[in-house]
Amino acid sequence: MKRSFGRILVIVSTLLTVRFADAEIPSADSTSSEPTQPTVVVVGTTPLPGSELDPNKIPAPVQTASSADIERSHSADLSEFMKRALGSVHINDIQNNPLQADLNYRGYTASPLLGTAQGLSIYLDGVRLNQPFGDVVSWDLIPKNAIASLALMPGSNPVFGLNTLGGAIAIRTKDGFSAPGTEIGLSYGSHRWRSLDLETGGHSTRGFDWYVAGTKLKDDGWRNDSPTEAAQAFAKIGWRGTRSRISLTGAFADTDLAGNALQEQRFLARDYASVYTKPDTTQNRSEFLNLEAVSAITDLWSLSGNAYYRNIRTNTSSGDINADALQENIYQPSAAEQAALAAAGYSGYPTSGEIAANTPFPFWRCVANVLLNTEPNEKCNGILNRTQTSQQEHGLTGQAVLTATLGEHSNQLTLGGAFIESQSHFLQSSQFGYLTPTRGIVAVNGPGAFADGTQNSENAFDARVDLLGRVRTTSLYVTDTLTLANTLDVTLSGRYNRTSVTNRDGIEPDGQSGSLDGNHTFSRFNPAVGATWAITPSFSAYVGYDEGSRTPSAVELGCADPSNPCRLPNSLAGDPPLNQVVTKTMELGVRGGAAAFKWNAGVFDARNYDDILFVADNAAGFGYFKNFGQTRRRGSELGVHLRAGEWTVGANYTYLDATYQSDEIVNGAANSSNDGAAPGFAGNIALHSGDRIPLIPRHILKGGVEWSLGKKVSLSADAIAVSGSLARGNENNRHAPDGVYYLGPGEVGGYAVFNLGAEWQPIESVRLFVQVDNLLDRRYSTAAQLAATGFNGAGNFVARPFAIPVIDGERPLVHATFYAPGAPREFRVGVRYSMH
């Protein structure tokens, strides 16, 4: 899975592939051989419309894309498009489902996984899509075919509110004026990928408009037992007059996603499509309403605002190995256990002689201990974790924009405010079960079926959660851009946020040990200042400083008590207050070029203060979230974009150095350098300032070419090259495998992936396409994690893999590197029919 990054650079440079969508160069029409004239792209400086500026006046390298760019990429969802087309973006495909990627930009993440530190904010028509519980982002709920444009704003821009630590993604949707006519799209691809897209829009002479879009997607998935099914519907009606426009948007999504996550290295080598354990499913159902209005009340003043409501229900089911059983004798049932099995009507259980050598997948002791409610937490090698989350959120945002002159200088001032209120109800349960030869978890029923702490075992644990959380956020923001001498633009911005979080525990009321009850309030004013200087008409520079913050999520607040440590990051316990994470970003750069050639270069430095980390407790395997100090993400970016006749070529390179800047002790149970009693035993590891943060590569290179052959045919190629990164669990950067207790290098190898595409328009209303991803069928991984493994090299489950040494009743385990494998070569073919 390794290849030197130098070789990757040579390959990419030689083939010079990859097509780009960029703010400063509009994409050429793929059906025309004539070069498109450059246009001035305006970018919103706030989530709401009305505050647009020429991006050359924004002190940051904003990237944008249009609906045409997204459509030509034939990407599964928005995250895949951004991975391929936007600079400094890469994917950690931890869930291994095409609609559940962790999207990373400059080392900050937008993820659908609860418990992941979220550092990017996502907006759709002015509505923040980060969900109330955990700030997660569900890409499967964003209607890709209804997107008119997107802008990726870098840095910790405070105007975009909470979670804008590394950047913000602002999405605008289509309407009947921007997307008139009807289009129907059908596609089919590898692993029985089937999709149907429909959109239709129009408007009347009286200013009324309408737009409707829908998507139905089914995919069997390239990995075993990994189907995807998603349905989306989007509708917008509106009216616009000479100075005003108003629209009402409704959206619905219903998805069922199987993401079988990481796989142990030995099994990937034997069967690339295999899964470690199953099931691992997520079901989302979402309703969304948004009323939006914009009015230019005078030649100088305009007002805009929105009011929205959304309701999201999520159910997850995850079958996992019960790590507690790896240390136990789970084979031959005792006499008491045999009696319990007989009394319950079971037969066929062994009366003697069951051992690991003759029973690769034991289950009788599990069933018996569930019946007896004694030690199923130790004798069941499987556990089925289920969650249910219900979230309701509503909000109001309004802003006023003044565009005027101060003396001889043009000026744009924006004043705004927002109020958001949400209620979330989170339920979690864990049911004991056993592992089958097909890696499935079979849940067992009986008095001890659930991990509720009632088992007659010294290691009994309570995994239940019943948490009701209410969050209110009030914000005021301002941003002002003043033009001096027609060459210098200075921007001042700031936002004040006040967030109150009220948690109520449905299991342990307030006052009891470990109760989740709590009242928390967070407030902060975040400033920003920046300037752009047009040195010549084709050369300019920018510099900016900004601050952003995020409040701790309910998951972090619910697992922040050293006296009540959590077994897992997503298991909740007591809730002392945590501080907000504050990010301070500095960046500067230059950009320039003529109409057909653009380039940019810049550097950035982003530092998190009071960052939140899951740290180790004295009891091995336990821990809690805490504010621990600083992390830093700094780097440089280069980009070139050229249009010459029928050719469009572009490339982006990012150097990214992400490190811890404070010392800390964290759990290192699977790390060979931990302080355990002996090799193979659990222990902690020490982080030191300068250690690299896992899953963040140092180098990202993208580049490409698009060739239009007349008006009817276009060919494109794109590639992504990403250097190696460290696995989670190797936070101290010191893991070294020994081939006995520790398998695998503790890192992710670098990779390069190449894609090809072609479009043909035989008649004006019909377009056909072919898309081939991972053309060279490269086997690679996008993420990795160190963890104990429950299997031997033959694929059989083994508890107590080593008889000795025994220290304090514990035995060593085998640990391995688990990888998130990238998809193999895949193709899609499709047709799109348009009626205008």
Q: What is this entry, summarized?
A:
The chain is built from 8 helices and 41 strands. The protein has a 22-stranded antiparallel β-barrel.
Describe it.
- The structure is a single chain.
- The chain is mainly β and 836 residues long.
- It has a 22-stranded antiparallel β-barrel. A 5-stranded mixed beta sheet has the order 3-9-10-7-8. Strands 16, 35, 39 and 40 form a 4-stranded mixed beta sheet that branches.
- Helices cover 7% and strands 50% of the residues.
- The protein is globular and about 90 Å long.
- Strand 12 (193-203) and strand 13 (208-219) form a beta hairpin.
Number of helices: 8
Distance between the first and last residues' Cα: 49 Å
Q: What best-fitting shape do the alpha-carbon axes yield?
A: globular
Mean pLDDT: 90
The largest sheet is: 22 strands, antiparallel, barrel
Low-confidence blocks of residues: 1-39, 567-576
Overall strand count: 41
Structural class: mainly beta
Proportion of residues in β-strands: over 45%
Helix content: under 10%
Radius of gyration: 27 Å
